[in-house]
Design goal:
Layout: H1 6-11, H2 13-16, H3 20-41, H4 44-51, H5 55-61, H6 65-88, H7 95-112, H8 114-123, H9 132-151, H10 165-187, H11 197-215
Helix pairs in contact: 3-4, 3-6, 3-8, 6-7, 6-9, 7-11, 10-11
Length: 218
C-alpha cells in the first residue's frame, strides 16, 4: 500500500488490511468512475459492480461517497509523493534538470497507474460545489509540496548573472507550468496508455533548451 498519513491508515484500517487484489480492484473502479463522470454523477452502484463487491461492503469501509472520494485523494497524493515528488529532490540543484526528471517520472507514473492519471485529470476540472472547499485544500497541499521538492536548494550560480535569480526562477516555473497545463489539455480524452510519452518528452526537451539558452550562463 502507498504511503498514507497515520491518521488515514487508522481511519481506514479495515480497508487497507484487505488483500491487495481486492483493495486495488475497489480503488481502481472508484478512480475510474469519478474520473469518467465527475463527483456529482459518479455512481457507487457502478463502482461496486465493477469491483465485484456489494454496496454494503463498500460502505462498511467508507462512510459515504464523499468519504471515499477524499480517501482516493489521499491515496493519489501518496503515490505521487512516493514515486514522483520524493524522487526529484535527490537530483542536483539545476532547476531545468529537476523539471526534466519530473517530466520523466510523471510519464512513468501515469503509465503505471492509468486509473490514477484519469482521476488526476478530472480533479483539475472538477466543479462540484459539494466538495469544492475540501478539494481546493487537497490540491493546494499537493501543489505546495511539489514546489518544495522542485525549488528547494536551487543552485542559482548556474543562472546568468545580469538578471535577478528569483526572476529567472519565477519565469522558468511559469513557463513550464503553463507548458504542463497545455500538455494536460492536449491529452484530453486520451487514455494514459495511448499517450506518446517519448514524443512529449522530446518536445519538452526543446523548450528546456530554449530556457537554458535564455537564462543560464553560456
Amino acid at each position: 500500500m502507498v504511503n498514507l498519513h497515520k491518521e488515514v491508515i487508522t481511519l481506514y484500517e479495515n480497508f487497507i488490511g484487505l488483500k491487495e487484489e481486492k483493495r486495488d480492484s475497489i480503488i481502481n473502479s472508484a478512480l475510474l468512475e469519478f474520473a469518467q463522470k465527475g463527483y456529482d454523477l459518479a455512481s457507487t452502484n457502478e463502482m461496486v459492480k465493477a469491483a465485484g463487491i456489494s454496496k454494503g461492503a463498500l460502505f462498511h469501509y467508507f462512510a459515504s461517497k464523499k468519504d471515499l472520494f477524499f480517501f482516493l485523494c489521499d491515496y493519489v497524493f501518496g503515490v505521487v509523493s512516493r514515486e514522483f515528488y520524493e524522487q526529484i529532490g535527490p537530483c542536483d540543484g539545476d532547476l531545468l534538470t529537476r523539471y526534466r526528471r519530473a517530466a520523466m517520472l510523471k510519464g512513468a507514473v501515469y503509465q503505471r497507474y492509468p486509473p490514477m492519471f484519469e482521476f488526476i485529470k478530472r480533479l483539475t476540472v472538477e466543479k462540484s460545489s459539494a466538495i469544492a472547499a475540501e478539494l481546493k485544500e487537497q490540491l493546494e497541499k499537493m501543489t505546495n509540496y511539489g514546489y518544495q521538492c522542485l525549488l528547494g536548494n536551487l543552485d542559482t550560480s548556474l543562472f546568468r548573472q545580469d538578471v535577478p535569480a528569483d526572476k529567472i526562477r519565477d519565469l522558468t516555473v511559469w513557463a513550464l507550468e503553463n507548458y504542463g497545463n497545455r500538455s494536460l489539455k492536449l491529452a484530453g480524452d486520451q487514455r494514459a496508455e495511448d499517450i506518446d510519452i517519448e514524443a512529449l518528452n522530446a518536445d519538452f526537451d526543446q523548450y528546456l533548451d530554449v530556457l537554458r539558452k535564455c537564462f543560464y550562463k553560456q
